[in-house]
Write a structure and sequence with these properties.
Length: 759
């Protein structure tokens, strides 16, 4: 990777690539520098104003370390990372909280604030690294969208109020509104407000990367023209609060001396744990959102986990310099891709520009007008507000928009953490409300149309179709809690009430698509069990996960009433169990195939005769009639085959020139997946046929047929069929007719199942 890095940098120094790289780096460096001065001013205001130069130095150092390491370690050249407005707002709230607790002029105020910032950045960097290391970047997909929007809108409002305080020196509140309306006060904040609004309107109307830096530079020029025409000197402007007080000589960033650690109020730092947790959460969300935004805007896939690791390393390094946390930003990163400056030099040059300002730009920054810095902050804050309040009205549903507004109101009155908590609570409540309206019963099926994978002779299939109303299958889905479980109870109660003529004997609940249940759902299933016991209906559960089965065994699947319930590994085995119950009942006994007196003739095998009667005769003749002689003549074309258990009769992928009638025993039909994992497709009992598809089409077998236990089969080879067609056309017509009906019945059954699934 190091070699490739040097190769890329050497290619970037070619004039054809260097010009767009320098252009993007210069524009980005000027804008980023302005932003960092604004962020430092936002954090170190009020009681922390005496330490403003160090605060600006901290933010600029953050660009140097976070941006530099991002440029070197990112998987996508051209990415730019800096301390962001989201971080600055939360860090400003932390600093204000510490200042309010310790009081103005406290000896430990400055070291306590820097210690809190250091802790926040180090923990954020560690979380970034952990998320990237364990490849958890996609966790962002699970954060409710309106919660993110509400936080960003609330952030916008806090940035606006922080900007007003930066320009006027007074917190914006109803109690201070009268002070804001004084003429001297309006001269300090009104120009910045106008600049922020105009900048917002122009940027929204015209999409060009030069607009923002040009307007900021123009605002500085206009400011000095106005004060010059008004006859106001720079010293007078400082006294009026329009310019910063001169910064101490030397570099803006100065590492806090180690002896300051003794003056840190660690209890005050610990009390900011809520704000630090909010900062970590929002930073983790925002870095992934921003990286995804660059991915969409630039049209290039980005490894989110790699971005997390790169920014994590940068934040760990920046944390030791008391820099606020930072991460990839959309605007500068997209600008690099759009202007053909997809190079690591962009981030490195932006870091270099901020380093120059940090070490030598103190006198220049002191001349930067406060209204212009305030205007930049106003612009940033209004951008968030318009995105989520104005544009959000058209993009969001009314319920989601309400969550955004509530979070904004709570954040503006009670703070960041309260707003985030209110948003999560509202989103969770709205999710529960909407989720409870999603049908938990995916499909309601019956034994008439839904059959197991066991292939059965025609008389048995007809019997199961007639008796199938005794089985009701409910395919459940989603996460089941009290509300949705109660819906199942109500639905079955109504069904039992409306089906008094033909009440079900078995209710089968399939949990294949259920992700989980809660304790209240188990209680509802217990009520359901009592209801079904009252109506003498058996309750069956299929496809239970170990966790769900463990929960149900506590309240529902109790040994005391085990004769009223049963568990099956999947729906197929559950339906097979029901079918066996039906076939073993009185109706099955009446439908059992028995040889009538005088039917069996000398020289014929009873096993083969019973096979043909069950498979062919019951369709064409009706039960109780003597077998057509044509059926008996089929026997001379069949070859009796005895198969041991576990022996393959047909192998998947091989060509077979024969089909098989199963006289006794059982066959298992399995499909071998690409991972060589067998999947059971069907089980065949006496009176069924296997291999007819590949036999007629001449194609390789689509599945493997294996004897589940010792079995007796009768095989019909292709040459025997041709001989039958020539010697006994009537017998061959009867065979083809049966096979055609067999396919037709399968198709009809599939269509009935589709119709039931689409109701």
């Amino acid at each position: 990777m190091k070699i490739q890095l040097f190769v890329d940098l050497r290619q970037d120094l070619q004039p054809r690539r260097l010009l767009p790289i320098l252009t993007v780096a210069l524009i980005s460096g000027l804008v980023v520098t302005t932003y960092q001065i604004s962020y430092g001013t936002l954090i170190f205001s009020g009681d922390l104003a005496p330490f403003l130069s160090s605060g600006i130095g901290f933010c600029l150092m953050g660009v140097v370390l976070i941006g530099g390491l991002e440029a070197l370690l990112s998987g996508n050249p051209g990415m730019v990372a800096i301390p962001t407005v989201n971080s600055a707002v939360i860090v400003a709230a932390m600093a204000a909280g510490i200042a309010g607790e310790l009081g103005p002029g406290a000896a430990g105020l400055y070291p306590t604030v820097t210690a809190a910032i250091t802790a926040a950045s180090l923990i954020t960097g560690g979380v970034f690294l952990a998320l990237g290391w364990f490849r958890l970047g996609n966790l962002i997909r699970f954060i409710p969208y309106p919660v993110i929007g509400g936080f960003l809108a609330g952030t916008g409002w806090l940035v606006v109020t922080g900007a007003m305080k930066t320009m006027n020196g007074i917190p914006l509140s109803l109690a201070n509104l009268r002070l804001f309306l004084l003429l001297d006060s309006m001269l300090r904040w009104l120009p910045g407000l106008v600049m922020g609004v105009v900048l917002l309107l122009v940027v929204r109307r015209f999409k060009h990367y030069l607009i923002s830096p040009s307007m900021i530079l123009g605002a500085v020029v206009v400011f000095y023209l106005v004060i010059r025409l008004a006859g106001v000197s720079a010293a007078q402007a400082m006294e009026m609060g329009l310019l910063f007080q001169p910064f101490p000589p030397g570099a803006l960033w100065q590492p806090p001396p180690l002896d300051d650690l003794a003056r840190v109020d660690w209890i005050a730092v610990f009390r900011q744990a809520g704000e630090i947790a909010t900062l970590i959460l929002i930073s983790s969300i925002t870095i992934l959102l921003y990286a995804s935004g660059v991915e969409v805007s630039a049209g290039q896939e980005i490894d989110l986990n790699q971005e997390l690791r790169a920014c994590g390393a940068g934040n760990l390094a920046a944390g030791f310099t008391a820099s606020p946390p930072g991460y990839t930003i959309i605007t500068m990163s997209v600008l690099s891709h759009k202007l053909g400056a997809k190079s690591r030099l962009v981030g490195l040059l932006v870091a270099a520009i901020c380093a120059v300002v940090m070490f030598f730009g103190g006198p220049i920054i002191a001349l930067f007008p406060r209204p212009v810095l305030g205007g930049v902050l106003i612009f940033l804050g209004l951008t968030f507000l318009t995105d989520w309040l104005y544009d959000g009205w058209r993009k969001l549903s009314r319920s989601d928009y309400a969550i955004v507004v509530v979070i904004l109101l709570v954040m503006s009155t009670l703070g960041l953490l309260a707003g985030l908590g209110a948003g999560v609570a509202l989103a969770a409540g709205l999710f529960i409300l909407k989720y409870s309206q999603v049908p938990v019963v995916r499909h309601v099926l019956s034994g008439r149309t839904f059959h197991s994978r066991v292939e059965r002779p025609y008389p048995h299939v007809e019997l199961l179709r007639q008796e199938g109303q005794a089985l009701v299958i409910l395919e459940l889905q989603g996460y089941i809690f009290f509300g949705t479980a109660n819906n199942i109870y109500v639905q079955l109660k109504e069904q039992l009430r409306s089906s008094q003529a033909e009440p079900p004997r078995v209710v089968m609940l399939d949990f294949r698509r259920v992700s989980g249940i809660d304790a209240s759902a188990a209680l509802s299933f217990n009520r359901l069990k009592g209801l079904l016991k009252e109506h003498q209906v058996f309750l069956a559960f299929t496809h239970l996960s170990p966790d769900i089965e463990r929960q149900l065994r506590r309240e529902v699947l109790t040994p005391a009433d085990s004769e009223h319930w049963r568990i099956f590994p999947d729906l197929d085995h559950g339906v097979e169990w029901f079918e066996e119950l039906v076939l073993q009942g009185e109706a099955a006994q009446r439908a059992a195939v028995v040889a009538q007196p005088g039917v069996i003739q000398a020289g014929q095998e009873q096993g083969g005769l019973a096979l043909l009667y069950a498979a062919l005769g019951a369709e064409g003749l009706g039960l109780g009639e003597e077998v057509d002689p044509s059926l008996l003549r089929l026997m001379k074309y069949l070859e009796r085959v005895e198969v041991e258990a576990e022996r393959a009769v047909i192998r998947q992928g091989e060509r077979h020139q024969e089909l098989f009638f199963l006289d006794s025993g059982e066959l298992t039909i399995e499909y071998q997946t690409e991972e060589e994992r067998p999947v059971r497709l069907a089980a065949s009992g006496p009176g069924t046929i296997v291999g007819e598809l590949s036999f007629y089409l001449g194609t390789p077998a689509s599945a493997t047929v294996t004897a589940a236990r010792p079995s007796v089969l009768y095989s019909l080879a292709s040459d025997s069929l041709q001989r039958m067609e020539a010697e006994d056309p009537l017998a061959s017509v009867l065979l083809h007719r049966f096979l055609l009906k067999r396919v037709g019945h399968r198709l009809l059954s599939a269509l009935e199942k589709i119709d039931e699934l689409t109701d």
